[in-house]
Amino acid sequence: MKERKLPAKFFDKELGWLLFNERVLNLSESSDVPELERLNFHNIFHSNLDEFFMKRVGKLRAQMKRIESKDPFRSKVTKIYVQSLNEKVNELVGRSFENLSQDLLPRLESNGIILTTPDQLSYQEKKDLRELFDSRVFPLLTPMVVDHGHPFPLISNLNLSLGFVVRRAGKSQPNFVRVKIPPVLPMWIQIPTRTPKKYQFINLRDLILMYQDEILPRVEVESTFSFRVIRSLENQSRSGPEEAEDLLELMAEEIRLRKYSEIVRIEHSGMLHPWARQFLQRELEVRPEDFAQIQLPLAFKKIDAPTQLRLPKLRYKPFNSRIPKAIKQGESFFKTINKADILVHHPFDSFSDSVEAFIREAADDPQVLSIKMTLYRAGTKSPIIEALSRAARSGKSVICLVELKARLDEERNIQWAKKLEAAEVHVIYGVLDLKTHAKICVVVRKEGDKLRTYAHVGTGNYNAQTAKLYTDLGLFTSNDKLAKELIKGFNYLTGMAGRADFKQILVSPTTLKQQFLEHIEKECLYAQGGKPARIILKCNNFDDVDIVKALYKASQAGVEITLIVRGFSTLVPGVPGLSENIRVISVLGRLLEHSRIYYFSDGKKDPLSGKIFIGSSDLMRRSFQERVELLVPLMAPHTRKEVWEYLSLLIDTNCLRWEMGRDGVYSRIQGPNSFDIQQKMINEKT
Which long-range contacts (CB under 8 A, 24 or more apart) does 273-276 make? Predict the structure, then answer.
């Protein structure tokens, strides 16, 4: 990728996102990581790139189209920018496959895991595969020729296809034939072997090509290649909120239209015939620069079957999440929360024994009258959905806001919404012009002649699967002030509270950004007055211009600032006279750092006297303007202490991390006394 001039005060967020994914690639390349975990990071790296094209490049391409006639110069600049991003992607992909073929696959093979090819198979192995092909694969294959009687087929997003240039006997004109590789079948198939401790896999593409003559009989095959398309998630014909009568219908229609959305990249491997290239370019309406040659077969972008093998020496050492110390088995959750606020830290603290247990008890407790909660991504299996359904059937008032606009989870959320409605849960489909990203559950319980409110606020989704892989915080509280505001906050989500004022919690798009800026300004004043002034912000991504400018001002005032940003940051640290008091670090490891924590010293010398907020919001323009987000203050001293101890480890100079330079490039910081914070948390808390 050509070197691009660094802006004076802001770093490019799209390139920043690619640099984040480069850090994921670095984990795939690291000899410190067990081999099967390295393979998993390889898969994550390529999955991230797919999402990058669908979301980010798709959005840029949509912008180009919108301004093409009005501002052709800006459109051209955007096009050049997209091309530069493509160059960086191709560089990283090349590096990924070099790492795979030159280092990782040989290491796996030395441990008995072999990704084999047809020419390496024994007679018996071929015989076994023949039976598998005949019974499970061949019935699902449909060769589709393109000619005057057969139009070009729809090519689904991310689906792998085989392309053939064929010539029929007596015909001078070639034809294109497409065979869709069935997505219902695993891409990598384990081959039975009699050799102990040997695990052999073949990819589905190679298996199909072994019997190519049976799929395409009586034709001459001139060229064989595999290809896949990546389509934009931006729908050009999307109706605006004012045109949509029903949000459920709108999202269902958007999912349908995505099948036809613009192709932003076409990846291919094998021998792509020049005639086939021109043919695909015309039929798919893509540009020459949209084609990307992949060095290895496309099946090698995701090698998932071997990662399921139970080989402890090639995996991270497993750990069991603990039952949070504050939660006593056999004691009512409500009684425990009444004693004191509870802070949970997943996955070190069990999600099932805390969040799910709280909702299960609320569903089954006859004294509970009402449950209100938000669902952004609930996962494929959800005990929480079952509990809410059970609560509604028992006569409780259950209100659930299901966010239908959660990118790439829209279809699943529509299914969950219908299931909840069938159980008589009152389902709200979010707000038309905002995305509800807040993670809250509010339970109202009758205790004597009074009503008491209990709540959970989290930094992550109500999703049992990701709770095992993502680091997230959750607060259980029955604090009256917080409880009242959280009820008010939920009513704001339903549209009945208007633009409510909040004194305890921070809510976007109403108060969050302004209050955040006020906290930064206070730290400036403390620094100028000679008082302790410190800011620590932990989030996933950071691009809000106003927050960046406020932090620059705070740095110049002498405030000590540390940003712990897993993904990209547009703030440039360490620039003399601008940001010399700001560090930007990134922590990646076996778990995905996902918790959002915001600390302000509040002019106090004792760090435990500072203000700490946790919640759903990143420091993104979209978080402040386009989403409903919620941050809650930690009010109990023991909860602040626990979070401060965690932050102290993250910012420790011996913490294994990446650190961002003023050029936007990250350097791996590792020394003789370095520690992996995630492993440290596992060792101490599980």
Answer: 273/165, 273/174, 273/222, 273/223, 273/225, 275/165, 275/174, 276/163, 276/165, 276/176, 276/223, 276/225
Q: How far is CA 81 from CA 20, 91, 442, in A?
A: 18, 16, 46
**Helices and strands (H, E) in the chain, number of each type:** 20, 27
- Residue-wise over 514-529: b if at least 16 C-beta within 10 A, else e? ebbeebbebbbebbee
Give residue-wise pLDDT tens across range 428-445: 887 767 889 999 999 999
Average pLDDT over the chain reads: 91
Has residue 215 got a pLDDT over 70?
Answer: yes
The residues, any chain, with a CB within 8 Å of residue 598's CB and separated by 6 or more, are: 516, 519, 536, 537, 538, 539, 612, 613, 614, 631
Q: 172-176, 201-205, 284-288: lowest mean pLDDT where?
A: 172-176
User: What does the alpha-carbon distance between residue 194 and residue 432 come to, in Å, rounded to a whole number?
Assistant: 59
Q: Which stretches of 450-574 are assigned E, i.e. beta strand?
A: 450-458, 470-477, 506-508, 534-539, 560-565
- Tokens matching residue 233: 């998630």
Q: Tell me what the mean pLDDT of segment 605-629 comes to.
A: 96
Closest CA relative to residue 465, chosen from 388, 375, 352:
352
Which are the contacts of 143, defined by CB distance < 8 A and separation ≥ 6? Answer: 164, 177, 178, 179, 215, 216
The reported pLDDT for the residue numbered 238 is 47
**Sequence letter at residue 610:** G
Q: How far apart are CA 422 and CA 42, in angstroms?
A: 41
The catalytic residues are: 437
Q: Who's near 580: CB < 8 A, 6+ residues apart?
A: 555, 574
Q: Token pair of 571, please?
A: 């703030």
Peptide bond into 347 cis (omega under 30): yes
Mapped onto helix, strand or coil, the DSSP state of residue 68 is: coil
Q: What CA–CA distance (Å, rounded) separates 41 from 61?
A: 28
Sign of CA dihedral 248, 621, 571, 54: positive
Residues 175, 150 contacting (CB under 8 angstroms): no
Q: Are 478 and 454 in contact (CB under 8 A)?
A: yes
Tokens linked to 645: 């101890």
Structure tokens at 82: 């997209």
pLDDT at 244: 41
Q: How far apart are CA 376 and CA 374, in angstroms?
A: 7
**Average pLDDT, integer, range 668-683:** 94
Question: DSSP string spanning 141-183?
Answer: --EEEEBTTBPPPP--BT--EEEEEEEETT--S-EEEEEEPPT
CA 628 and chain centroid, separation: 18
What DSSP letter does each residue of 480-510 carry, written as one string?
A: HHHHHHHHHHHHHHHTSS-S---SSSEEETT
Q: What are phi and psi of 420, to 5 degrees?
A: -65, -40
Tell me how many degrees the CA angle 543-545-550 measures, rounded to the nearest 5. 115
Q: Phi, psi at residue 399, to the nearest 5°?
A: -120, 125
462: CB partners within 8 A, 6+ apart: 355, 373, 374, 375, 376, 378, 382, 384, 439, 441
Q: How confident is the model at residue 241 (pLDDT cuts 50, 70, 90)?
A: very low
Query: For residue 26, how many other CB atoms are within 10 A of its CB?
Result: 18
Contacts of 596 (CB under 8 A, 6+ apart): 459, 538, 539, 540, 614, 615, 616, 617, 618, 631
Q: 351 pLDDT exceeds 90? A: yes
Rounded to the nearest 10 degrees, what angle do helices 72-99 and 35-51 cross at?
170
Closest CA to 88 of 29, 38, 22: 22
pLDDT at residue 1 in the model: 43
Amino acid at 524: C
Cα separations (Å) of 424 from 128, 189, 383, 392, 396? 51, 43, 17, 6, 10
